[in-house]
Amino acid sequence: MPSRPDGGATATATRVLHGIGVSAGTASGPVVIIHRAPAPDPDEPATTDPALASRQLRAAMRAVAAALTERASTAPAAARAVLEATASMAVDRGLAKAVDRELATGSGLGRAVSDAVDGYCARLRSLGGYPAERVADLQDVRDRLICELRGLPAPGLPDLLGPRILVARDLAPADTATLSPRTVLGILTEVGGPTSHTAILAAQLGIPAIVQVAGLADVEDGAVVGMDGSLGEVLLSPSDAEVALLAERSRRRAAVLAGPGGAGATRDGHHVALLANIGTAADAARAAAGDVEGSGLFRTEFLFLDRATAPTLAEQTAAYTGVLRAFGTRPVVVRTLDAGADKPLPFASLGPEANPALGRRGLRLSRVREDLLATQLEALAVAHRATSADVRVMAPMVSTVEEAEWFAVRVRAAGLPAVGVMIETPAAALRAEQVLSAVDFASIGTNDLAQYAMAADRLQGELAGLLSPWQPAVLQLVQVACAGGRATGRPVGICGEAAGDPLLSLVLTGAGASSLSMAPSRVAAVRAALRLHDLDTCRRMAAAAVSARTAVDGRRDVLAMADPALADLL
Amino acid sequence: MPTRTVALASAVGLHARPAALLTTAVNESGLDVTLALGAGQPVDAGSILEVMTLGAGHGDLVTVSAEGAGADAVLDGLVALLTRDLDAE
């Protein structure tokens, strides 16, 4: 173990910091702090020699571009393109001239850079879509230029000298693009929520992560910490015994996960299909190569985002055929376009909305832009005929029987074999029996169901407590929806983050879920959890979670009913 | 001043790869080249930020202008870029 750099008088007692564990697993090692980007120096003098300042600016621009190009040369292919594009912005002629104009008004150099970049950012944002997404890259350029001009270390992820635990206020998308489980032992952030970019990426990569860690700002660069991404605990200056205990927990977890693979089932043989959530053709290929029974959620948005015009029938057909072929005879549940005011598409914009999450998104958008849905269904039908795959098509954001019927008519008319709906509104959950009578299956999206049941914005990290899938109100809606499935004989699966939580997977199974669809990295832990428990225990867990007084009580009560070996999976 | 006006072929509009290819070609030419959307104000066609923030979409009419030795040949090359769907290739 590395020696403790602060092993002197200040670090004799272990202190524990708490946060929200968002990616399971344990780690210990030295931390590296990802610096927050500094603002321009507030005491910066006004520019009196614009020509000199302009030369300093151009030197800084060249230095920043060179550093980015250098990083690009050793980065993986996907990250390389991002870094090279960012490097070209760093030496952009338009940016240099815009800064010159600010300098001519007497602005200090840092302030001039900041104002010139803000001007471009506002214009990019107003264009929406792909240009708007470049704002983060351009802000990264600004931060790097300001650091260069102020003689400060570059912000963002430094080149790691060895395995480290990353500590940051929050991680920018540009930082996470280059993360590797080989060098990143774990991730700790001060802010961010369980559905933040950082959390989702860490879980996908299998890197332990804790967000909203209180007191993290006091941790110093190079300090040794231990962390448990399941418990959401950070140990400052852990003892050798504590480090050994963390490692032991990782080892036991690996042992439980090493059990036999195959179809998901409880100890007494009740089958629960274990499915993968996928978002791209590459995801499909990776997931299909793994031990999963199919895909319970194929998000088709990737084909539509970053585009000025809708993808053509031929383009969609090729993409869907590729995904269906990857899964062979295993089922693939395709969700039709889930776009709306928060994920605006230039070719399908219905104008700005005050409450995008409550606006014309998902199926509501499809009903206004029926042409988009028609092309998508036709492409799926052609892909289905070409592959004879077990394709099932479902609509996002359904609230009523009429909406389900409207969708079912079109899917069946396209010649597709199975039609279903997402249950992500309380209305659809409460009326699941009636909604299911119009379709062949349903899938509960727990993230949106929690957002709408609790009236809490998913994008607000501060509302994480309200958005917990353990909220008894949310689980009661899940139970009601599953009861609708039993009454109609139609399967009801789960495809939200909750499905990938080993403890919750037992509750969801007990509530009556027929399948669980999750990030592929979660499947092994959920399979192991199911195998440790019989269906009757799962049912008692579901009843306990729904009747619990609070989300925290519910989780505690269910954990107390679980096999002790389950604790190693969390 | 030599000038060409063409309809933009790129399906995604003038950003991402199409914009990068255009600005690279302009910078390699060594000439000052401007780009205008419709009847709008011309911008520096060698600046990726200026080109992207123009907001030119598929089918929009754009005008490239250049001055200096070989301007016509440079513009012909740029027109060839603008009238292909660069993102699809």
* CATH homologous superfamily heading of chain B: HPr-like
- CATH hierarchy class name of the domain at 432-570 in chain A: Alpha Beta
Write down how many β-strands of chain B occur, each being a DSSP E stretch of 2 or more residues: 4
CATH homologous superfamily of the domain at 432-570 in chain A, by name? Phosphoenolpyruvate-binding domains
Helix content of chain B: 25-40%
Oligomeric assembly: heterodimer
Care to describe what's here?
- The complex is a heterodimer of chains A (570) and B (89).
- With 570 residues, chain A is α/β, with parallel strands linked by helices.
- Among the domains of chain A are: 12-34 and 156-255, Glucose Oxidase, domain 1, CATH 3.50.30.10; 50-150, Orthogonal Bundle (Enzyme I, Chain A, domain 2), CATH 1.10.274; 432-570, Phosphoenolpyruvate-binding domains (TIM Barrel).
- Helices cover 46% and strands 13% of the residues of chain A.
- In chain A, helix 4 (109-127) packs antiparallel against helix 6 (135-150), helix 10 runs parallel beside helix 11 (313-327) and helix 18 (472-488) packs across helix 21.
- The model of chain A is unreliable at 1-12 (pLDDT under 50).
- Chain B has 89 residues and is an alpha+beta fold.
- Chain B has a single domain (3-88), classed as 2-Layer Sandwich (Histidine-containing Protein, Chain: A).
- Helices cover 36% and strands 20% of the residues of chain B.
- Chain B has 3 helices and 4 strands.
- The relative contact order of chain B is 0.32.
- The chains are: A alpha/beta (570), B alpha+beta (89).
- The A-B interface holds A 85, 88-89, 92-95, 97, 120, 123-124, 127, 130-131, 134, 138, 306-309, 346 and B 11-13, 15-16, 20, 23, 27, 43-44, 46-50, 52-53, 55, 57-58.
